[in-house]
Amino acid sequence: MKYKVVLFDADNTLFDYDQAQEVAFRQAFHEFNLDYSDDWLSRYRLISESLWRRLENGTILATELRYKRFEALFENRLEVDPVSFSESYLDKLSEGRFLLEGAQEVVAELAPKYALAIVTNGLKEVQLPRFQGSPLSKFIKSLIISEEVGYKKSDAGIFDCALRAMQHTERSSVIMIGDSLTSDIKGGFDYGIDTCWYNPSGAANQSGITPNYEIKHLNELLGIL
After folding, report:
1. Tell me, which fold does domain 17-93 have in CATH?
2. What is the residue-wise DSSP string for 112-129?
3. How confident is residue 76, by pLDDT bands cut at 50, 70 and 90?
4. Which overall architecture, per CATH, does domain 5-16+99-224 show?
5. Which of the four pLDDT bands, split at 50, 70 and 90, describes residue 94?
6. What backbone torsions phi and psi does residue 176 show, to the nearest 5 degrees?
7. Is 9 among the catalytic positions?
8. What is the largest CA-CA distance in the chain?
9. Are 107 and 139 in contact (CB under 8 A)?
């Protein structure tokens, strides 16, 4: 058996972040007595994705990202306090424990054979309660959150923290699985571990980053590991 440690990304790899995001966004709008429309969510996603890329690049802090996306969203549109709205939204997002198809079954099958961990750039007040309340917590040994350890994917430091948590040193027997070429796959490649790109939409890879494996369905992992 080549691999001993399997590292997973969280959002849109195991957890259905898009569904959780939409539910939390709608609920926060309702709490603030705002008229919701899908256009608000579409605009928010564009703003948020841009800021998450800046977080990966180190040009914005997680503490700023929390509220700046809502500051940009509501600017000159609605009189909403972005900090209060962010707190409401994140609280609701932490309850969104929706899993992607096959996630629980695949993790349950892998758990007796491998040491499993999640490595995520997500915000700690979302990731920790969501993970603890999900069925995945029975099978996954460690949750490594960038905000807690002080390193983000794709920095080598976050992978150092993950391997220390797993009490493992041999990089050749570790694999990173995730949906982001720029954080999960590049981070794993730069660190010297194998990678598997979860690409359910079949998107073209124009990044110049080459994973060891590429899958469209999580159950394909059972034929790789």
Report:
1. DNA polymerase; domain 1 (1.10.150)
2. TTSEEEEEE-S-HHHHHH
3. low
4. 3-Layer(aba) Sandwich (3.40)
5. very high
6. -110, 130
7. yes
8. 58
9. yes
